[in-house]
Amino acid sequence: MASLAGEIDNTSDDPRVRAPLVVGDHDLASVTESVARVAEAPRPPRAWYIAFAISVSALAILGVMILYLIFTGVGVWGVNNPVGWGFAIVNFVFWVGIGHAGTLISAILFLFRQKWRTGINRFAEAMTIFAVICAGMFPGIHVGRIWFTYWMFPVPNQMELWPQFRSPLMWDLFAVGTYFTVSLMFWYVGMIPDLATFRDRAVTRVRRMLYGFFALGWTGAARHWHRYERAYLILAALATPLVLSVHSVVSFDFAAAQLPGWHTTILPPYFVAGAIFSGFGMVMTLAVPARQLFGLKHLITMRHLENMSKIILVTGSMVGYAYLTEFFISWYSGNIFERFAFIGRAMGPYWWAYWIMVTCNVVTPQLFWFKRCRTSILVLFIASIFVNIGMWFERFVIVISSLSADFLPAQWGYYTPTLIDILTLIGSFGLFFTGFLLFCRYLPMVAIAEIKAVMPRKHRQGAAAAGEAGA
Amino acid sequence: MPPMNQGKTGRSYWRSLDELAETTAFREMVEKEFPSFAPELLHSASRRQFLKVMGASLALAGMTGCRWPKETIVPHARRPRGRTPGVPVEYATAFELGGVATGVLVTSFDGRPVKIEGNKEHAYSLGASSALAQAAILELYDPDRSQHVARRGGEGEGASNWAEFTRFASEHFSKLRGKQGEGLCVLSEATDSPSVADMRDRLLSALPKARWFEYEPVSYDNERAGVALVNGSPQRRHCRLADGDRITADVIVCFDSDLLMTHPTAVRNAREFSRGRVARDGQMNRLYVVESDYSITGGVADYRFPVRSCEIPAVLCALASDLIGRGLELGPAAAAVRAALEGFTPAVATDFVKQIAKDLMDHKGKVLIDVGPSQAPEVHALAHLLNQALGGPFTYTADPRPERPSHAESIAALAELMGEKVVDTLLILGGNPVYDAPADLDFAGKLGSVTTSVHLSLYNDETSRRCNWHLPRAHFLESWGDARAYDGTVSIVQPLIAPLYGGRSPIEVLALAIGDELTDGHKIVQRTFRAAFAAAGDFEKQWNRALFSGVVADSAWPAASGQAAEHAWLGGLVESAAKIEPRATGEYELVFRPDHKVHDGRFANNGWLQELPDPITKITWDNAALISPTDARQLGVRYGDLLRITHDGRTLDMPAYVLPGHATGSITLPLGYGRTQAGYVAAGDDGNGAGSDTYRLRSSAAMYIATGATLVSTGGKTLLAVTQDHHAIRSAVGDEATRERIEELYHEITLDEYKAGHQAVELPQFNPLWKEHSYEEGHRWGMAIDLSKCTGCSACVVACQAENNIPVVGKAEVERGREMHWIRIDRYFAGSPEQARIVQQPVTCQHCENAPCEQVCPVGATVHSAEGLNDQIYNRCIGTRYCLNNCPYKVRRFNWFFNHHGPEHPRSIALGESFYIGTPDHKELNDIEKMAFNPEVTVRARGVMEKCTFCIQRISAARIVAKNEGVEIEDGSFTTACAQACPSEAIVFGDLNDKNARVRKAHADSRAYALLRELNVKPRNLYLARLRNTAPHAGAASGHELTRASDGRTRAG
Fold this sequence. Notes:
heterodimer; A: mainly alpha; 67% helix; disordered N terminus; disordered C terminus; B: alpha/beta; Rossmann fold; Dimethylsulfoxide Reductase, domain 2; six-stranded mixed β-sheet
């Protein structure tokens, strides 16, 4: 393969030249090689071990925290009256938001023929899966009687008791459940040709058996390809509305309640924009080190990063616009409760959270007006971290500052997280990164089959001789 | 009967049988072989006793047995022939505090008293009760109560028992009888109990040289002495603020007097006062309050003037002067008063008295001036002179013991005797003088010089631990006794249960000291009344009637009057009043007052009271030095900052609480905290209990008002666990928003506006998209809370806690905002910080028709009932807390832990064990604590939501009774716990479908409004706007104009 030192600039916007999406001296074989090599190497880079050790430790902390929670009670968290939802729900919304980019990239960009998505879609989808797992965990453990969480599901029972379908929490359950299922299928279906490649390249029996099992007998036959392309298109069509629905429904948890600061019609689009924003932020955070670490710079090119930064700029500005609109409407409504909900956010006891949010979400992305920032690895990485922090705080502001001061001033109360809250949040990152690192180690991080389709034509010729499966 | 705590010491069980075997009563019983067993036993006392007797009879088969329930308790209510298990029975008894009894009815389930209510037939209860009386149930079952006789010093140190004490007492006191009681002193709590009086007389005749002292740290003796100056002999003043619905006091002026909260007749005062607050026929009383602290009475005043307590004599003299100037005839004392006030010019501002004087003169004959217990007798005397001249609804009764020295004198005299080492034997019956005697007396130190000291007490407290003998006292709910109401009406105190911890009552201990032939409280009390009852007819009949109704008919003291020969005190009063200087900067007065919750400290081990938010400050589990915003600003002190208070060489560090409306230059120090030896609740596990011991600054020279104190900020900080205005949530914009909202949330109108035709606040009309439930048939429960009547006394909060098994969560949990009260009282300040007004708004579940909580529960654990209630189904609830978030009133309470001794409860902190490594300590309720639970109400587990149910168990009980009897539920035949306890009848509950229901009428009142009506949640509870009776010529100078110009929620510093 062609190993490349430094970055190759493929970010030119000259309309006469189609910008290459795979750079460097690649042919079809070397693409396969460079992706498969990561999973086939006898041992991953040392950095992977360090990252994995940290992630697993954090995951262990999460396990301990959850056990402690179950044995003791929700009181171990900082939640109180009136702030009935704390870090758990903040984290839930945060992770669901992260989980947004994957399906957006795989489904919507696919339907819109945005070919640059192929470099990043696979691990964006993987990120979605693990983020949604993290998200799904929180509503499960945050209830008072964890052992009865299953009552939220419509499980037939002798008392004919069903969940209450008027509750946005029910809608949420189905929205997130559906989203997870479709995302998982989408991810898996898209991975089948690549799994077959791995199977064919496997040198040990175990790898051959396992990859073989999940490759579902893929041979690369034309009929397979035909059905595969159909199925992928249908799944993309199915997933597209979900991108919009899942975070809209998550926002209903708040919008359908009558709390000032929650009860606003702007929430669904605002949540979706925020989710895409945060999702791309997280993809960026993962992509920058991953491409470095696993030598994938030629597949996840500067152009990919730049495109993502443009989306971050757009969605970040949309989010900023939503913040302004909220303020305007709360003032325009003339409702004293509504008005205070927003003034209180900016100038009340949680002013710091609000201004962290604004700085990270609205100010930071403005850097991306400048091409120099869009093409600086360091700026991209730091800005993406800021986006993640900002979006976590956005959920903190929405959930906690609204709850802490609602209608009756006598019942206002401050929320302070406990150590358990903080460790649980850290632990959820452990869960996420453990999953993600395992994915990097054992599964194709880049869609090998797909990316070949977007390679410059000249590479095609070089690969003509190769009879690789999946190509 | 063996003590309940026998579990761990089987030995003492057998021992107590041995002990029993020695008594003659026991021998009699054995002779009878099958003593009064069978039907009457089944009907009497308790199932518990029955089972005990059964068990004992079987085990000991006629040879021996327990103490038989010889005592027959006559229930108050209709009693079925055969007791139906599970059907509660009510018994009448009396709750005595500071020597004054209030009648109560105690609900007993299968022999377990679980709830205290007021006794309608008792003139000082009228069916209502105070928070303190309500909380007595928890005290009864308090596991921290003393359970053993204990001995200190000398041989046999350590745990002892009654047999040993009895042996010791018979020997010791017979020796003393030989010496005619030389060297014996008895220190009693204040009490007017006829039986105690009888025993006292017997003691003093058997031991003529013995001396009897009475001490009460919070006493009304100043008023008694004041009346003596005017009427010639110590007398007690009785006032009536209303007679039924007729207002008898048009204008009430209180000087440092908390007539509606800490006064011994507060429950009745609140009832009568509230009758005059609803503008029936356009009539309304008007209340002026002049005080330093912010009292409950001050909170409901039409006009309140904050002045230092030490200025009140000057204010009163100025008022007298003004009244005389307006032509008030002072009767026989006129010349003396006129002479004394000649040329009186106060050095302090008293301009506001003009308004009061004019109002008093305008309503001559129907006015009342009341002075609080902290003021000197002379100040009281002047007030009584003015009252007598103005005429008003008050009478006097003679003090039954005019020769009794005041409590302050009494304790000082005893301390002096002890200091002279002439006290050989000191018998302390109740009270806790080591903790609450004036600090300069060094009572604790002098107690060491007493050879034999015996302390009878509910708790093994500070005094007990310095006495040779500690005797466990029987709770009033487990012993026989009697007590007198404020007007002298006698109530028999009857036990509801056998002593749980083997305690005895003061009269039983006195019987041991005297060597009385009767040792049993029941017989002693019967003896006290035998002559009087027999004279009125059949003793048994009279006795049973007294037990049944809770009062002894016609036992009140007769009215008295009198006239002092001369008024020499006037000169001194006016002279000193004229000398009262305006406050010098840096100098403060300290005002000691009983705490709203733990009183003088005796209730400090009561978790319900500790966790009850103070009605004014909302502090729980603590006391704080209350300081005015101006002083706080000057000192640079903010809420929770530690102050170092120095007075007369004594120093105390305690947290400050900046109280808007508090008088500048005055510091209020609530008594009763900082207990070092009591239970775990009061004193923690290290003797370092909640709050600060303000008694350490209190000297016998300045029992209530101490001038010339200095204050500095230590720079330290304490976290005060408040249930409202948590420090961290305060912000400038938040305070501004609060100001903006108060008018929306708390409606207030003046009497004139109301009379001019007040327009009711209409509920918003929306066309629902669906067909709403009609409630045409059956019941439609609803509530109304009259803000004009509510004083904020918080009796409802404790009543609800007792009725509904609401847990106590501990200070740290309250600090986190996790208190569990189903009804709370929101308190807001309005007006400028210096002249702030207080408004109180009880908030409970509003049982919304469009309940926001119901729509969001994913499992349908909260649903609407066919009778309009918003029901919470505990065993369906999984605890998502979405309902809590969506409740606009924030009345839902979540069980963050298993809260019956949750991890922050003092008992869990002290005694708890961790179930799994690392999990917080937890102490399970013991069997006795569990007896306090109301069996009709589920004890909620961890992880479920709970909230006010409108006492659904009471609704069900009433429905069952009505159904069985084939009648309709009558309005007023039952009510919720909060409404039943409410002294001022502010809460009304009933069926909105019942045309005659009071609640329906209340909802139809033009004052009725729904809290947050614009949300269209259609609450079942409506508030009635508060009425304010403004005076026609009241100047705006008082700062009490109605506009809510600014809010008092200041940020000091």
